[in-house]
Design a protein that fits this description.
Helix content is about 30%, strand content about 20%. The chain is an alpha/beta fold. The chain folds into 2 domains: about 240 residues, Rossmann fold, CATH 3.40.50; about 140 residues, 3-Layer(aba) Sandwich (Rossmann fold). α4 runs parallel beside α12. It is elongated and about 85 Å long.
Length: about 500
């Protein structure tokens, strides 16, 4: 990996890297490999350090991409002995020094070390969390599973972004009382998590591979360790395993909440379900839920089928009852399909607004709105403009308010530490890592090294809301969901459901 934190001490991100020096440096053995280490001093620069250690700036930056933006006091630099032994005389092996005047830090591993380091002090007594699940004595330890190796592909870069966001979250908590160890392991390596490490951990952030997740879930159950699944969206392990935490609201619950939100957002409106009979209507599960929801309440809805592209004539039947308010719900969330109906809906909506303005009777009818899908948040250009002109609403598991100060602060921190912006993705993996790190680490620190999956009821992050509930006879699942509005002034707003 291109970077990994070693320690976070009193609010400082400390990046681990590989370098070389002409000085005598202590040596530490980690996973059978020896490393020199060096602690950056106050006001040291990359240029100055290169002169002091007898290496080029290019060498430092090559082994430490995060150092290109500058050094920070207390950062720990690692130098693999087998690569620099001809340039560095080894000193006696020393234990990693504790920071002066601080008992709060979060530890991790240097580059390419996908295995555990020394464990933190552990508790000595068993306890039960607020869900009633008995857990044995454990230390304040969190494990993060991400793929190791080279980070060249888009997918790999997003995985790296996730961990970088996690580290920034750790940095914000460094000054708090208490200690949390964070270990990163290679999710591509089935044996990356030793049994000893698993038995010691409070929570593991699981891998993105469904097969690996299932195997790890069984081990977590045996070890009484919570497994937080952020990546396998449709996984159902939580239904039977009391230690699995499904971070993505299950589809059925999401649809139920979205249907309720549509009804509360547009009271008295008649849903109009649009289906292209010549296309794949991949949102049929949601529209089926919507029809069932309204039928059970004895409320009307309308279905309109069209071929290939929606035409104005397809909506003619709606004007037979001009006082009705309609909310359109397409059966597809793709950009290609959106382009086949959006302009017709805009014209229909505009014509109704004109008639409302011309009506002196004060009627509130003739409104036309649109309700859609998480996919739309990624639309750009004309499609995005149309969403705002339509005053569209969507449901989504994630919401990043681009105008939010906290969100932009994280962006700035990310750029500062890693010399590049987060990869563009929906959801942002950097923000997902930040939110997950904030939730897990704050949880552990707030429970004196323990972990409570029902802590706080709801945890609102930058992009995610974690509101876990217990599944009968199983683990936990998140119920957090957003209703997002594309405001006509170009802004985005959202409320949690």
């Amino acid at each position: 990996m291109a970077h990994i934190l070693k320690k976070i001490v009193t609010g400082a991100l400390l990046f681990v890297s590989l370098a070389a020096t002409a000085l005598d440096l202590p040596v530490r053995t980690i996973n059978g490999r020896q490393y020199y280490y060096y602690e950056v001093r106050n006001r040291e620069t990359v240029y100055g350090l290169s002169k002091r250690l007898g290496v080029t700036r290019e060498e430092i930056v090559r082994y430490n991409p995060s150092m290109a933006a500058g050094l920070k006091r207390g950062a720990i630099l690692y130098f693999p002995v087998d690569e620099f032994s001809d340039r560095i005389p080894a000193a006696d092996s020393l234990a990693y020094p504790e920071p002066e005047g601080s008992d709060s830090y979060i530890s991790s591993m240097p580059d390419d070390m996908f295995a555990e380091t020394d464990t933190a002090d552990t508790a000595t007594t068993s306890q039960a969390d607020s869900t009633g699940v008995e857990i044995p004595a454990k230390g304040p330890l969190a494990v993060v599973c991400i793929p190791g190796g080279e980070f060249e592909s888009k997918r790999a870069q997003m995985a790296l972004d996730f961990y970088r966001g996690f580290l920034i979250a750790a940095d914000t908590l460094a000054g708090r009382s208490g200690r949390v160890d964070v270990r990163v392991v290679d999710s591509h390596n089935p044996g990356a998590i030793s049994q000893e490490l698993l038995d010691s951990a409070r929570v593991v952030i699981g891998p993105e591979d469904a097969t690996a997740l299932a195997a790890l879930a069984g081990r977590c159950r045996d070890s009484h360790t919570y497994l937080l699944n952020l990546f396998v969206v449709a996984d159902t392990l939580y239904t039977a395993n009391p230690y699995v935490m499904q971070a993505n609201i299950p589809a059925a619950d999401m649809y139920d909440k979205a249907c309720e939100a549509l009804g509360s957002e547009f009271p008295g409106f008649v849903p109009v379900i649009l289906r292209n009979t010549a296309a794949r209507n991949e949102k049929d599960p949601f529209t089926a839920c919507l029809k069932q929801h309204f039928s059970q309440k004895g409320l009307p809805y309308v279905e309109i089928n069209y071929v290939d592209r929606l035409q104005t004539a397809d909506l003619a039947e709606l004007d037979t009852e001009p006082s009705r308010n309609y909310v359109f719900v397409p059966s597809s969330g793709t950009l290609a399909e959106f382009n086949k109906f959006a302009y017709v809906l805009k014209n229909f909506r505009d014509s109704r607004m004109i008639r409302n303005n011309a009506d002196d009777t004060g009627t509130t009818g003739r409104r036309a709105e649109i309700f859609g899908y998480p996919d739309w948040i990624a639309f750009r250009g004309d499609a995005q403009m149309l969403l705002h002109q339509l005053d569209a609403r969507i449901y989504s598991r994630f919401f990043d308010d681009y105008d939010n100060f906290s969100s932009r602060t994280i962006d700035s921190e990310f750029m500062h530490w890693f010399g590049k912006p987060m990869e563009e993705s929906v959801p942002s993996q950097g923000l997902l890592g930040y939110d997950a790190g904030s939730y897990v680490l704050r949880n552990i620190l707030s429970h004196s090294g323990g972990f409570d999956p029902l802590w706080q009821g709801a945890f609102r992050g930058i992009q995610s809301t974690f509101r876990f509930v217990r599944h009968p006879g199983g683990g936990l699942y998140n119920t957090g969901l957003y209703l997002i509005r594309f405001e006509t002034d170009g802004r985005l707003s959202a409320r949690t459901l």
